[in-house]
Amino acid sequence: xxxxxxxxxxxxKPSETLSLTCIVSGGSISSSDYYWGYIRQPPGKGLEWxxxxxxxxxxYYNPSLKSRVTISVDTSKNQFxxxxxxxxxxxxxxxxxxxxxxxxxxxDYWGQGTLVTVSx
Amino acid sequence: QxxxxxxxxxxxxxxxxxxxxxTGGSSNIGTSYDxxxxxxxxxxxxxxxxxxxxxxxxGVPDRFSGSKSGTSASLAITGLQAEDxxxxxxxxxxxxxxxxxxxxxxxxxxx
Lengths: 120, 111
Known about the structure:
By secondary structure, chain A is mostly beta strands. Helix content of chain A is 0%, strand content 48%. Helices cover 0% and strands 44% of the residues of chain B. Chain B contains no helices and nine strands.
């Protein structure tokens, strides 16, 4: 059964770079059937798509975050990663990794999420 | 301010029927882009409830139904149960923003 597990620091200082990795198990990240993405949810608020990647390395970013976001894939380790630069308190959120079938479709499966707090 | 508009809250007694609306515009729901629905139980990750406007993944009870018309979509829940108490989100794609967009979420309370 497919599992997605986010990993990374739970606390990041303002102006620094947030880095997360999503480890995929029970399935291949190199499958041509799926895309892989990140979504975040500030405490008590709604969902925001950050961006997605295909196993070939093609990326799709939310224009509102594009200048600060980099998503990469490592097929040899069956994982994909998120980097968000110049973070502020507004970037404090639960970050989810997820898989989806088409570039325009939302996720059909989500990781459990990890809380990242931006604070000095 | 979310691109897709949902009521902040709805409520109903056990056994009743409730509907949750999701209103968008001509650059998202009003185009050919599909609407998907997610259920988020307290303290957990969202779970796919409907995809492609009205398709139910295996394991989702048929008490849940989805529809889309014009620039809006709806989620209906019949035979309301206590376990349905959760936050519900709609999602689509916006061709002007070139991004996924989510509704602000609706908190369902089972009285």
